[in-house]
Specification:
By secondary structure, this protein is α+β, with helices and mostly antiparallel strands. It has 2 domains: 272 residues, no CATH class; 116 residues, EIF_2_alpha (Alpha-Beta Plaits), CATH 3.30.70.1130. Helix content is 28%, strand content 26%. It contains 12 helices and 19 strands. The strands form 3 sheets. It has a 10-stranded mixed β-sheet with strand order 11-12-8-7-1-2-3-6-4-19, sandwiched between helices. Strands 5, 14, 15, 16, 17 and 18 form a 6-stranded antiparallel β-sheet that branches. Strand 11 and strand 12 form a beta hairpin. The two termini are 27 Å apart.
Length: 456
């Protein structure tokens, strides 16, 4: 019998979010699904490097330790989990979860679904030979110009493959680069039997996923409107979607938790990374954000309804990352009096020394934190009596040795520059590799996902 209401809880908005948030979602009240979003564009390249060093790595290890903590409750309460924690090694991630479940004595009580097919790194050269250009969606640049620097290439797969895993009985679904929204949409499609061409319903599920994909950003965190009146962010409750089969849903959170769910928090999250409001494109559908209706439905309850959708496109978006040189950032703090003038003088001295050494960079960027770091020239002239200003200088370039030499030119300013300086306690700046994002498209006909079910 089909459920009338499905409660999908957000437990994580990014890799590194509050560690206890998913635990509190599971223990704090009734939910049917827990969705956990781990992946950002740069995360894939980090995981690819990890796997290059260790074939068993390449996924979010935090997910495994989390599952070890919550699986007994999930099994008891019949809570199913959808997550893209698999990174570039979904099978390794799923196997680690299976081993943890066995250690917990859950053998025979759990199935883990593995969704693969998003990682196209091994097929890039084949695609290029066959004439698939991979043109940068922002610049028009062809992938061939940076092919030798590519570190990862992953298709944003949609909800359909996750639905198949749920249909096959998976209690935990582990994917690679699935869309954030698909982690919420898939449970609704599975439970309500929504078809792949129910465009309005798919758009509704997509927007539900968009609202909770960033965790507490929809329940009071990072909220601009009356931010100082939002209660108890120390104990902030993460958002939950209570979805109906007709596509309407309530955004809420567990009782007795901090933060708030209001028209304002939901609206602010809706416009986050929205792009074209008429055409919010996902692999599953195209959602029309101008059709969204929101209304107050009580304390910490916002109803969302009336959403319209359009047919999905014939393409998947591909997240490609490539090495784009090196960078380093150094800081010093100058104190009153004349803090801003001292910081500006130190910047001029540093730039002069870099030029004298003949060092070449793609960019040298200076910020004066406390004076104009956030707003640049729009900040205007700061007051003359600033108590302190942090000089922050960053360089970017293709020559690692030049960037390394820059890191050795910050400390000498302490004794060879303006007075009243401190703040070098962090030591010499580190040279970091720059990972650039290359978004492209690929025909959906070129991609085939596969589902594997692991029995615990």
């Amino acid at each position: 019998m089909m459920k009338q209401t499905i409660r999908v809880a957000s437990g994580q908005g990014f890799w590194g979010d509050l560690l206890d948030a998913p635990v509190r979602q599971v223990k704090g009240g009734q939910i049917d699904y827990l969705m956990l979003d781990y992946l950002a564009e740069v995360t894939m390249s980090i995981m690819q490097k990890q796997r290059a060093r260790d074939a068993n790595a390449g996924y979010a290890r935090d997910f495994v330790s989390l599952m070890r903590e919550i699986l007994p409750d999930c099994v008891e309460k019949k809570i199913r989990v959808t997550s893209n924690a698999g990174g570039v090694n979904p099978k390794g991630c799923a196997e680690a979860v299976r081993d943890a479940a066995r250690d917990l004595g859950l053998s025979g009580k759990l199935k883990i679904g593995i969704v693969t097919g998003d990682d196209i790194m091994p097929r890039l050269d084949e695609f290029l030979r066959r004439g698939i250009e991979f043109r940068n969606m922002d610049t028009g640049e062809l992938l061939a110009t940076v092919r030798d620097k590519v570190q990862s290439a992953n298709v944003y797969i949609g909800a359909t493959a996750l639905v198949e895993a749920l249909d096959k009985g998976a209690d935990v679904v582990v994917t690679g680069r699935a869309t954030d929204t698909g982690l919420t949409l898939a449970p609704l499609m599975h439970e309500f039997g929504w078809r792949n061409d129910d465009w309005n319903l798919l758009a509704a599920g997509t927007i539900a996923g968009h609202i909770i994909e960033c965790g507490a950003q929809a329940s009071g965190g990072n909220c601009l409107y009356k931010w100082n009146e939002i209660p108890d962010l120390t104990d902030v409750g993460f958002p939950i979607v209570e979805a109906q089969s007709d596509g309407s849903f309530i955004v809420t959170k567990h009782e007795n938790t901090g933060g708030c769910v209001s028209l304002q928090t939901v609206k602010e999250q809706l416009v986050y990374e929205m792009g074209d409001p008429f055409n919010y494109i996902t692999p599953d559908c195209v959602a029309d954000f101008t059709s969204i209706n929101v209304e107050d439905a009580g304390e910490n309850r916002v109803r969302v309804f009336g959403i319209k959708g359009k047919e999905a496109t014939d393409f998947y978006k591909v997240s490609i990352s490539y090495s784009a040189g090196y960078k380093a950032v150094g800081t010093l703090v100058y104190s009153y009096p004349d803090a801003f003038e001292k910081a500006k003088a130190a910047d001029k001295i540093l730039r002069g020394r870099l030029e004298r050494l003949g060092l070449k960079f793609d960019l040298i960027h200076t910020e004066f934190v406390g004076a104009n770091a956030l707003h640049g020239h729009l900040a205007g002239e700061p007051p003359a009596n600033l108590p302190e200003v942090q000089l922050r200088v960053g360089v970017r370039g293709q020559d690692r040795k030049a960037v390394e030499r820059f890191t050795k030119e910050i400390a000498p300013l302490i004794l060879t520059g303006p007075p009243g300086v401190t703040g070098f306690a962090g030591g010499r700046p580190k040279v970091e590799e720059i990972v650039a994002f290359f978004p492209a498209l690929i025909p959906k006909t070129e991609i085939e996902t596969s589902i594997e079910i692991l029995e615990v």
